[in-house]
Amino acid sequence: MRPDVVVVGAGIVGAACAEALSAAGVQVTVIDQGAPAGGTTAAGEGNVLLSDKPPGPELELAKASVARWPKLLATLADLLGPEQAEVEWDPKGGLVVALENADALAGFAGHQRQAGVRAELITPSDALALEPNLTRDVIAAVHYPDDAQLQPVLAATTLLAAVRHRGGQVRGGVTALGLRPDGVRTSEGFLQCGAVVNACGPWAGRFSELAGAPIDIQPRRGVVLVTSHTSYTVRHKVYDADYVGAVESGAADLQTSTVVESTQAGTILIGSSRERVGFDETIRVAVLRELARKAVRLFPTLATVPIMRAYGGFRPYAPDHLPVIGPDPRVPGLWHATGHEGAGIGLAAATGQLLADLFLGREPEVDPFPFRVDRPAVMTCT
């Protein structure tokens, strides 16, 4: 069957776009060069965050996504059944702490409150009540009740299961090689369709060149440590206030900041690192040591918990730190949904809805203008 839309990329963002289109009756085929949900999504922590975003377009997209995720998951549970739609959704909230420079943290939270985010400035004693294992060196903290977490691979595969349930196809091991006016050339032959969505994540820049409409999306590598199964308690997503600066930075050199959270599987995830090294997959011991050292500074008794493994992945980095969502004016039928860097899990629900709204000519909930393709920061060829 000839699909209306081919989504190139079966990670969380591509899956969310495909699900939102299929929910509106659009016939969708999703292809991926690897296994569905096996790339950047599989290397994610599952963050659904408001706490790390300053006021602006990305925060507005995040607010829409945080509100949409529970509704979307309920819809998927009704469609597929609760067992198949289980994604380990955990609205546990976030805790951002400062070991120095308390004024900067308070000021950032104040700006977020003005933008409609629940950002509750609390005392160090309150922070210790929320997280008993936290260091006593905390001098300020902000509680974010609306931060959440999910299991990213489960979320992506559930979205793709909904696409299949509605008659769409999901095909792994199929590489997109370029476009023709009536479809996309692939490693498995020509696939006729009416439109193509570039949801290739860190590889979106590469595919955009093949499609004849290059955009500046680059891979930015990150590494996460995983502890063995433990009874050690981390009740929220907890990170040092330096994390916000690392997220917003455009520097290519290595940056690390402390992020610690438990999973429902009983492990603890420790991050985070950011560096632009192309597609170099090397995991460097020095980076792992830095992550561990900073995590122990935040949770001193974490030093007794063994590390089981480490994993790394590439995030799609846009120079202006904003996703690219919408039609490409240079190539009719080409759409983009990429550039979310490390926020793709959290932003996916609203991204899929926004792309579907634009594709179908519906009034979008979120202003699409800041995410347009033809903006100077990402348009590499006019």
TrEMBL record:
One of its GO terms (molecular function) is oxidoreductase activity. Pfam families: DAO. Residues 4-358 form the FAD dependent oxidoreductase domain. InterPro entries: FAD-dep_OxRdtase, FAD/NAD-bd_sf. It comes from the Bacteria. Keywords: Oxidoreductase. Transmembrane segments: none annotated. Gene3D superfamilies: D-Amino Acid Oxidase, subunit A, domain 2, FAD/NAD(P)-binding domain. GO terms for cellular component: cytoplasm. PANTHER family: FAD-DEPENDENT OXIDOREDUCTASE DOMAIN-CONTAINING PROTEIN 1 (PTHR13847:SF287), SARCOSINE DEHYDROGENASE-RELATED (PTHR13847). This is FAD-dependent oxidoreductase.
